[in-house]
Amino acid sequence: MASLEEIRQVRLEKLRFLISKGINPYPATAHQDITCEAGVANFDQLMRSGKSWHMVGRIRSLRAQGKVIFFDLDDGTGRFQALLKKGEPISGESYELFEKAFDIGDFLEVTGTFFLTKRDEKTILVEEARMLAKSLRPLPEKWHGLSDHETRFRQRYLDILFNPESREVVKKRSVFWNAVREFHTSHGFLEVETPVLENIVGGGDATPFQTHHNALDMDVYLRISAGELWQKRLMVAGIPKTFEIGRIFRNEGMSPEHLQDYTQCEAYWAYADYKDMYKFLRECYLYVAETTFSTLQFKIDSFNIDLNQDWPLLDYRGEVKKQTGIDIEKASDQEIEKRLKEVGVEYEANNKARLIDSLWKYCRKKISGPAILINEPKITSPLSKSSSHNPNVTERFHFIIAGSEVGQGYSELNDPIDQKARFQEQEKMRAAGDFEAQMMDDDFVEALEYGMPPTAGHGFSERLFSLLVDKPIRETQIFPLMKPKQ
Known about the structure:
single chain; alpha+beta; CATH 2.40.50.140; BirA Bifunctional Protein, domain 2; 2 domains; 8-stranded mixed beta sheet; 5-stranded mixed barrel; 18 strands
């Protein structure tokens, strides 16, 4: 069996042969009258027309039988069979050129008429074949990357080409985000774009990526939220409903649910509160799931999920106490640490906020959902409004599905004095070594001093999509980040 490099050298010879015949192996233009999918769907009409049609695609199979050559074209919409007969109607010279220089994997354009073979196979009888792109590496006869994540992710183009499941994920991902966009715009939200590079990173608890802006000679951060503090400035500016779907970046660890760069949607709604927002977002999830997957029932890990059922409200403090016996309002740091050790949770003991968050994440994994978590402690919610019923908790919600948080929102804090005080508390946490704590943003506080109406916000990421397709999040990204080959 010839090695890959030997096959490549043979194909390079074929490339030079085409050039010697005055043929450009990589032309800029192609002619396509009909797709492979449409060729199958409209075959009878096309055959009756008696006309010649142009089709394009990659050769996916090739079978020579005496003076005839059958091959399958694949243009991304489907496959269609083509037939060359030496001298009938294609010229002998063109037939021999095809024999000598065309391979499986090449892209070409064919011109011909449609007919049925003796086996009733829908076929185009080729009158002319033109090279569109000569492939120098052979397509694998069998894609061995199906069980090898390293190969699949590094050669994602082959994975998508050979693996129908991967191709379907790419398509559904597009449908998913278009449905998110459609739902928001149909409810009067204005799509906006906000800065990706920031002087002060804000809108979340995460470690940012840092880079240098040469033209301005200053260090900047890649954003960790889809413009939360910028969209709130638009509330100050008098735009009542905004949303953004964009890329965000967090310089943190990797897991089946976490990546460093991913797509997120955030929206802000003036004159609304967190209850309005969780009702809106629940309807958004139902619409997006139905549009993308044509169902509201999902099997996710070991959970059977029905999005159409009631979504109960869960009290943060009550749920933690029920599962762990710890009352987070009364327990000391030492008591929480002791319980975390007992249940085998790794944690960072920077401050009480992080300890409480670690305890909650342990509890969350046991909740099937769908459910809506409310009454999160103020200490872990620096941007949300305090509850009028209990100043120690906030008007914040989380959506819980299959043990994961897949969306959140709050009644946004619009009191500039309170906001500044919370930023100052976050700054103390940063000074003590908690680099996920938020930075002081005096410019945002100044904007709030001009007045921001009561506002609700929400945010969710592509984690929701990966959850609904029941795959690790790297599996659902088209090109996940990979280390360079050593």
